[in-house]
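Troubleshooting log. The previous structure file for this entry was overwritten by mistake, so regenerating from the original sequence record. Sequence copied from the archived sheet and checked twice against the printout by T.R.
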Amino acid sequence: MISNKPKENQSGIRKVFSSLYMDNFVYGAILGLLAPVCSFIWYRVKMTGPLSLKETFQWLRLNPTELTALMTSTLLINVALFTIFINGRRDKTSIGIFLITVIYAATVMTLKFA
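Regenerated output below.
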């Protein structure tokens, strides 16, 4: 049976998914910040086990090869996001992701060699 009622859920879903197609520098910067944080949380749970956050940072400082692995995985996520948005011709968003990635990489390299 065909209903003539307006489909309210579709407009809500479309609003959520339309945010994925935004071309905004701030949106790109937020994505660029959140992706490494999510990767770090996953890494912390999978690799270090039940260590506290402070103990995790101490463990990473004592094991610089693990810091390199963590840095690589988090930056690869940002590179993937950058590629998706640049291929979708959302240049402002991709610039935000790129800028945060460069800042993040410089910070991690400074911490590694300090």
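Residues 24-113 form one domain. Archived copy saved in two places this time.
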